[in-house]
Amino acid sequence: MVYCRNTSGQYGKATVEGYYQKLSTAFVELTKQASCSGDDQRTLKVDCANGIGALKLSEMKHYFSQGLSVQLFNDGTKGKLNHLCGADFVKSHQKPPQGIEMKSNERCCSFDGDADRIIYYYHDADGQFHLVDGDKIAALISSFLKEPLLEIGDSLSLGVVQTAYANGSSTRYLEEVMKVPVYCTKTGVKHLHHKAQEFDIGVYFEANGHGTVLFSKAAEMKIKQLAKELEEDKKRKAAKMLENVIDLFNQVADRQVIGTTDAERQAVKPPGLQEAINELVKKYRLSRAFVRPSGTEDIVRVYAEADSQIS
């Protein structure tokens, strides 16, 4: 919502409904464009880990009912947060969460409690459990992106960023089969994110299901331009697919541009930020404000207070 406001609505509508509409429209369009096997009416069983994701997904699922039928489990009506369910439980125990009955080849996934991680899994025809963790998700996304990139024929760079804890077979598959460059960083999303920003399109996922795809501003503009200008059907379709992929991923700018001192109450970088805050604070009685990079998410936290709420 902050990004929508800061771009004067170019990124989307600054409401919860606007968020649902943006993601669901891109998803439904993408399912129409992408060639895939299986049933026309796709179904997905979602383990919400008895967390916050259930509340929002129950509101959101109606928006993409055209392309996907979503069934919610462990939705918080009973059971405890992450108890015998959730992404971490599924990955650690290599088995489905409590509360989901799985038939063979049904698509299933699990969030973690605050819904910023996702793990997929299924049973094959022999009842064998198969996990699709972050390493496999990164490989699937990269192979999906490579096809339209080759079709449009533009020299946009695609790179995958992993940590040393990534599955070695996934690294070999990406490098040797997909011919996608793979880079290794220290553990932690902030290191993965920073490296992914060096590419036109950077893919990163930790094995635990935490990750995203980043598109540089230049790549985003180029793709949108090609989607409008290209006359050749195949190329235009590929550009439009990439355009929908951009809208489907939540891209966040690097929080590490903010540096602080004095117990995180003074900003030392970027230059001029603290001076601008000081000027604003002077205008209000008994006021103070400070910004800091979040320790857990790729966002910047803002604190502000004054004698009254009247601006």
TrEMBL record:
Signal peptide: none annotated. Residues 274-309 form the Alpha-D-phosphohexomutase C-terminal domain. Residues 14-119, 133-252 form the Phosphoacetylglucosamine mutase AMG1 domain. Keywords: Coiled coil. Residues 216-243 form a coiled coil. The keyword Coiled coil applies. InterPro entries: A-D-PHexomutase_a/b/a-I/II/III, A-D-PHexomutase_C, A-D-PHexomutase_C_sf, AMG1_II, AMG1_III. It comes from the Eukaryota. This is Phosphoacetylglucosamine mutase isoform X5.
